Amino acid sequence: ARGAEAVVLLADLALPGAAEGLVARAAEALGGLDVVVSNAGFADRTPVAALTDEGFARTQDTVLWAMLRLARAAGPLLAKGHAPRFVAVSSFVAHSFRTDSTLFPATAAAKAGVEALVKVLAVEWAPAVTVNAVAPGYIRKDAQAHAAVDEAARQAMLSRIPLGRIGLPEDVAAAIAFLASPAAGYVTGQVLHVNGGLAI
């Protein structure tokens, strides 16, 4: 944002102890914490029959455990912040289970857990901190960083979205910005779906 200070800090939140170090460094660099966005994760399409214990655990570590560790580390500092907010990023894969679309068993389980923790934290951290989640649908990503989707697959996606388009990163960012803003001061324990109607 114009006039704001940005600090880049790296950590692997799947590793025990990493979240505490990251939060401490961020609080020191920024003079405290007012907003935390938990957005770690990846999509695992491995079907249940082929899903190993290690593969399932890796997804839980990267998504669910990472969010829990970040929340535990950030909670005490957020409680001292100005209008503090915690926003987690979930996914439509925790809500969309259809025979005509790809399933993400491990990721769906992890993101469902994230949403459950959001509701628990909304109660535990009230009234000091609001806790919410954003659940994006199909979002256009950097073509250089992700495998391209062929035209047939793109049309199949579009056919399931009432608004008729793939979402943009800006759509998700706007939802997160709202939940982190004073305008969402009376919103907590909620999951805001940003999917063009995909999960109706």
Automatic annotation (TrEMBL):
Asked if the keyword Oxidoreductase belongs to this entry, the reply reads yes
Identify the keywords attached in UniProt to this record, alphabetized: Oxidoreductase
Q: Looking at the keywords, is Methyltransferase present?
A: no
Database matches in InterPro entries: NAD(P)-bd_dom_sf, SDR_fam
SUPFAM superfamilies found in the cross-reference section: NAD(P)-binding Rossmann-fold domains
- Example of a GO MF term: oxidoreductase activity
As for family, the record states: Belongs to the short-chain dehydrogenases/reductases (SDR) family.
This protein is called SDR family oxidoreductase
Organism field: Teichococcus wenyumeiae
